[in-house]
Amino acid sequence: MTDFIPTFRGYVAPWECDEMGHMNIQFYFSKAQEADLHLMDALGFTKEKRWQTGTVLQPTEFHVRFHKELFASDLVVIHSGILSVADCVVEFYHEIRNGLTGALAATMVVTALHRSADNPSPIALPGDVRMGAHNLTVALTPEGKPRSFPLRSSVDMPDMAIAHKNKMPETNRSAVAPDECASNGRLSTRGFMSRVSDSQGHMWALAGLDRQSQKQQGLATATVEMRLNVFHRPEVDTTMLMHTELVEAAAKTLHYRHWLFDAASGAPIASHNGIGLLFSKADRKAVPIPPAVAARFSTSS
Which of 17, 42, 202, 236 has its CA 20 to 30 A from that of 249? Predict the structure, then answer.
C-alpha cells in the first residue's frame, strides 16, 4: 500500500452552490473528474499515451458518500489512489476535503473501463499502466466503505417497459448541450449529475414534501450516499428522459431511484440510486421521515 497523492486543489465558487447554500452534487463530480486526469498521469496513462493508443479509461460506475457540506468560498483538495486493477478495469478512490480545515467532505470510488475511444468493448490495459496502478494502490478507508449500495454489486439496468409498468413519473426532459460535453464530444459525468440534481425537487414533490413545504417547516434535504451507473454517454443534441421511483423509506432516510433514457429510442443511458434525508435548518440535525412521506414510498412500487 502507498500514500494517497494530491490530484486536485481548488475552490467552491458561489455559482456552484444550490438554494441551501452548499456545493451542488454535480460539482463534486466535476472536481473529481479533474482528479481522475491527474491520477491517470501518475499511473502513466497520460494524455499523450491515450492519443497514441487510441484508448481511454472510461468511468462507468461511481459510489459516493457525503460526509460534510462544502460552502461558497471553501477551499477544496482531493487526494487519490488506486483500489484495484484488473485486466481491463481500474478502481480509483478519491477523498474530497475542505482544504482549510481538513474535514472530509466526500469519498468517491470510481470504476473505469479501459476501452477504445470509438468502441465500448473492453481492452486489456498496457503492462506499464498496470504496473503504475499497482504502485499507487491504497486501502479503502472506513469512511469510503459503502453503507447502502455494495461495491461491485449487480447493475441496476433501466428498462422503459418497467418504468411504464411501475408508473415511474417523468422528472426530467432535456437535451445534451455542447457545453456539457467532454473532449470526446459526449456528455460529461457532471452532465449526468446535473440531471439528477434537477430531478431531486420533483422527487421530493412526489414524496409529498416540495421545496416550499420544506421551507415552511424549517426543513432541508441532503443526499448522504449514491451510486451512479453509466451505460452510454450521449452526444450533443441527444434528447433524454428521466423517470424516478420512490423505493423505500427508513426511520430517517429515503431510497430513491432515477433512470435516464434516450428519449428517441428508449435505450438506457444511466441509473442513479440515492439515499436522502431531511434535516432541521435550525440545528442541522437529521429528523425522522414524516409518516405521510414514508407512506408514499411504501406504495410507489
Answer: 17
